[in-house]
Amino acid sequence: MALWGWRPIAVACLAVAVSGVLGIYLFPQLRGSRYPIHFRDVTSRSGITWRHTDGSSGQKYIVETVTAGVATFDYDGDGWIDIYFLNGAPLPGHPSVTELSRNALYRNLGGWRFVDVTVGAAVGDLGFGLGVAVGDYNNDGFGDLYVNNFGPNVFYRNNGDGTFSDVTAETQLSAGDRVGAGAAFLDIELDGDLDLYVANYVQVDLNRHPQRTAGGFPVYPGPMDFMPEGDLLFRNNGDGTFADITAEAGIAAYAGTGMGMICADFDRDADTDIFVLNDVAGNFIFINDGRGHFSEEGLRLGGAFNADGRALGSMGIDCGDYDLDGWLDFYGTSYARELAVLYRNLRGEALEDVTIQAGAGASTFAHVTWGVAFLDADNDTDRDLFVACGHLQDNIEQFDSTGLYEAPNLLLENTGQGRFADITGLAGDGLWPRRSSRGVAADDLDHDGRVDLVVLNSRREPTILRNDSSPAGHWLQIVLLGRTGNRDAVGSQVGVATGNLTQWAEVHSGRGYQSHFGTCLHFGVGESAEADWIEIRWHAGPVERIHHIGANRRILVVENCGIVASWYPDR
Amino acid sequence: MAPEAYPPETYNRVATGEHADSSAAHLLSASPREPSGAAGSSPRVSTPKRPIIRPAILVIGAVLLLSAGMFRLFWAKVGNTPELAQESAEPIPSAISPISPEELAGLGPLHREAVALADRLLADYPGDPQAMFVRGLILNKFLSRDRAVACWLECIRIAPEMAEPYYWIGFDLFKRGSYREAMERLKKSIELGVAISDVRVVLGEAWINLGQPREAVTVLEEQIARYPQHAAGYFYLGHAYWLLGELDRAEELFTRVTELSPNNYQAWHSLAKIAQKKGDHNRAETYFARCKVLQTAFHEGHQEKRRQYDDIESLETSLASAYTDSGRIYLGKGNLEQAERDWRRAAEVDSKHVECRLLLADLFVLRKDLSALGSVIEELCQLEPGNPTHLMNRAALRANLGRFQESESDYLQVCQLAPDRAEGLMGLIELYLQFGRSPEKAVQLAEKLVRSHPEAASYHLLARSYWAAGQHRKAIEAAARAAELDPGDSRYAAFHQRLVQLEFSGGTPLE
């Protein structure tokens, strides 16, 4: 007692207090954190052995730099979200041109066990994969898979029995033999079936590919070394075929260097608009007139450039209502020495770059940023941001040592006052790996009510991040099934009210960096044990409101039928 | 990112153990340590409890410090914080060690040559801050940023008053997104009077990116006051005011950008946004349309530039600049031979490099080597045929060599190229007077000169021309006018007096 009397205890208490003060001083972002966010890297134990290749051989073909996206969706209807990885393919000069660098579908068996079902499911396309989107084009209840390649694109119909069929020719979707980018299904004219927008990048001829050097070192050329490639819009004819309506829909007049894209009802006029990011060129915002005809208004609406009026090296885009004002905001990633951009939606009348005011960009400046996901990582009712990073020049350190080819990904926590804080260094070992990441998908892979992450890394194995945030807030997951509109309810918006807060989200097909995720809408509801109400604005359908929904479960809502099923993670 | 959230002052204190020292000092003053086993050696008597508390405090203190250090290391690792030594008593090894063969692996001949130059500077002037600074610049371009930063840190160590290294380290940190650390260095460079025009722009941009536009305003207002013709300062200041919601001031500044740089599509975009925010949609539409046209033109121009860009040529230019800077170091140390060799090599490496040729010209003037001077001026005239300064130099040299006609032709070309400036006319008049040719023409030109530039020097030349043409009364009047216009320069008054005397006594007044 003499040794450990009251004084050492007092001193220890003091030390703890000092540590606390020191910690808060050194890490101011800790101050607003009610739920600590923690991601764990579980790649090695997941059973996923697939590796990405960009098909490179030192020729520095531009397409190597932009592959690829990733999709998370429940392909077999078993309730578990599965993963589909896109792969590059050997390009001329590659030592093993016969190597099978195929896409891979991993079935989620639960418990963080995944099994490669690519061969059985027949989705192992060997093309040079770039972008992917999932949509139930024939409304049969199973998500179909569109792969946007460098070269011929592929459309897989989900047979509903765990297998897919290549229906590219049959559906008349074989037009996309270009350098693809993002893709998305949307119902452009509210007729209840999903149409398809296919973004394209640049016109590349590998036989006449420009050679570039920087500081004497060979480097990849940029989009400005090529002509831009026009995008494509296909209308679903409702009979199992699509028709190219790019020109008649008003899209053909614009050729951009398309990258990531997202379709969302930006102005809440009940039809779906299209936001396409262009690399070092003004972004496109195609506003839908409700009948499937579009006008390009990116510049007027403030989404073409950033606040400086600069055309960024744009990469990926996601949307989410970060400030809980009921309007979908957008976050676009970009090149190094540029801030990624947070566009605040000004009640559908314009977008305003509020990156600086919101603190949502500063940590992105040093990196090339790619995949992005708005996710409520700690279920505290607001959307955080996960941003994938990594330079596209694999030898960047040779001629610009302020750049990093393999960089840490970033996690920006929404602190609740319309501001973000970079908590990358505090969010667990999942944020430690340095990779050259590309596509990102965010979904709850283990049914624990926390959104996990899948990151596709160029030339490497992917990173699977389990969300171990604990304690986290309560949550609610909503799966929609449309009846008048498309069955996946793509384009439908859902509001979840808890107390005086209402969160809005929309069902998307194709988002982030040429990726697909989040068909099952996830809402963190913080301390609330139930949602006061949820409102569903069915796409091409009615508005429906359901009251008093208990939290911590996944619900299936069928249009005009209310909740028809619930799943609880612990039952 | 991490560095922003991490006040460096705190880290430095912790890392250098200042806290530990002060804690220890406090403990010692409160309770002096007893040497063990030396009872009686100190007049003080210690209480039995203190030695027990002290280790506890020290242990906890050490744990705290260790934790803070580990946190910092961890933070640096995940946050990619460049670890920059602040001050060091010893030379920084990676600054003063020659480049190893391993570091040279994979480098091309131009890189190797540059690195060898950097090593030569180190070998010839070890411990010299200017040489170390140039070594840093060369290594930054041709080898590695880490080596370069080490050199600049070494500069700061040996010459803390040198501003440029702070700027370069700051700029490097800025590019990495480490704004707070960058700003510290940039501010220091300003404090030390760095002669780089965009330092405040970088600092302002860093404040803006950190979300602190008010601070950006302070530094950018200073920028536009110092560099009123530079558009960048106005642009970022406009952006800072936009962020602060002061739309009128922002509009004023973006308008100024469009005046200084009419093709700046970003400024038109900003003006459109302001108009939109003010509800003036017609004006917004007009500005957006202008922005679109200019952006398209910019895009196409940029594409064309990329097509034209030759990376090897650009590297050669960089190497030539390295030799040029190196030559300056040798000149400063009085080693004119090495300076000349470096500048000659620069000219050889980059056949279009102007700066090294200008320095060579200065050197040849100093040496009175007119033949070498003639060739280098000839090269400069070929490289920049529209540059009146080179033509003036060539004209003067040719006049000096007695080549009247060629010199006259150069001066006439200068008059054509820069009709608003006096130099060409003055040179031409001097030429006529020097060679005693066409005094009437000299008078005619001098009359023209005083009409366009009614200054003392012009009237002085007019006086000389009149005198040469035999119009003495007019010469005296013109000389009087020159003396009147610049009474501070006694030569004009003396000349006037001399003319007056000569008018009565006869003789030549020419200086």
Account of the protein in words:
- The complex is a heterodimer of chains A (571) and B (511).
- Chain A has 571 residues and is mostly beta strands.
- Helix content of chain A is 6%, strand content 37%.
- Residues 24-32 of chain A have low confidence and may be disordered.
- In chain B, helix 7 packs antiparallel against helix 17 (311-332) and helix 14 runs antiparallel to helix 15 (265-277).
- The longest helix of chain B has 30 residues, at 50-79.
- The N and C termini of chain B lie far apart (69 Å).
- Chains A and B meet through helix 1, strand 12 and strand 28 of A and helix 3, helix 13, helix 15, helix 16 and helix 17 of B.
Q: What number is the mean pLDDT of chain B?
A: 84
Q: What is the N-to-C succession of helices and strands of chain B? A: HHHHHHHHHHHHHHHHHHHHHHHHHHH
Structural class call of chain B reads mainly alpha
Contiguous helical run count of chain B? 27
According to DSSP, the number of beta strands of chain A is 42
Percent of sequence in beta strands of chain A: 35-45%
Number of strands of chain B: 0
Task: Give the C-alpha Rg of chain B.
Answer: 33 Å
Please estimate the helix content of chain B.
over 70%
Q: Give the distance, in angstroms, between the N- and C-terminal Cα atoms of chain A.
A: 51 Å
Largest sheet geometry of chain B: none
Summed up, the helix count of chain A is: 5
Q: Radius of gyration of chain A, Cα only, in angstroms?
A: 23 Å
Largest sheet of chain A: 8 strands, antiparallel
Average pLDDT score of chain A: 92
Low-pLDDT regions of chain B: 1-53, 71-87
Shape of chain A: globular
Record the SSE blueprint.
The complex is a heterodimer of chains A (571) and B (511).
Chain A: H1 6-26, E1 39-41, E2 70-73, E3 82-85, E4 104-110, E5 113-116, H2 118-121, E6 128-135, E7 144-151, E8 154-158, E9 164-166, E10 178-186, E11 195-200, E12 212-214, E13 217-219, E14 229-230, E15 232-236, E16 242-244, E17 255-256, E18 258-264, E19 273-278, E20 284-288, E21 294-296, H3 298-301, E22 317-320, E23 329-332, E24 341-345, E25 351-353, H4 355-358, E26 369-375, E27 384-389, H5 396-399, E28 407-408, E29 410-414, E30 420-422, E31 434-435, E32 437-443, E33 452-457, E34 463-467, E35 474-481, E36 493-498, E37 501-506, E38 521-526, E39 530-537, E40 543-550, E41 553-558, E42 562-567
Parallel strand pairs in A: 35-41
Antiparallel strand pairs in A: 1-34, 2-3, 3-4, 4-5, 6-7, 7-8, 7-10, 8-9, 10-11, 11-15, 12-13, 14-17, 15-16, 18-19, 19-20, 20-21, 22-23, 23-24, 24-25, 26-27, 27-29, 28-31, 29-30, 32-33, 33-34, 35-38, 36-37, 36-39, 39-40, 41-42
Chain B: H1 8-15, H2 18-30, H3 50-79, H4 93-96, H5 101-104, H6 109-124, H7 129-142, H8 145-158, H9 164-175, H10 179-191, H11 199-209, H12 213-226, H13 231-244, H14 247-260, H15 265-277, H16 281-308, H17 311-332, H18 336-349, H19 355-367, H20 370-383, H21 388-400, H22 404-417, H23 423-435, H24 439-452, H25 456-468, H26 472-485, H27 490-505
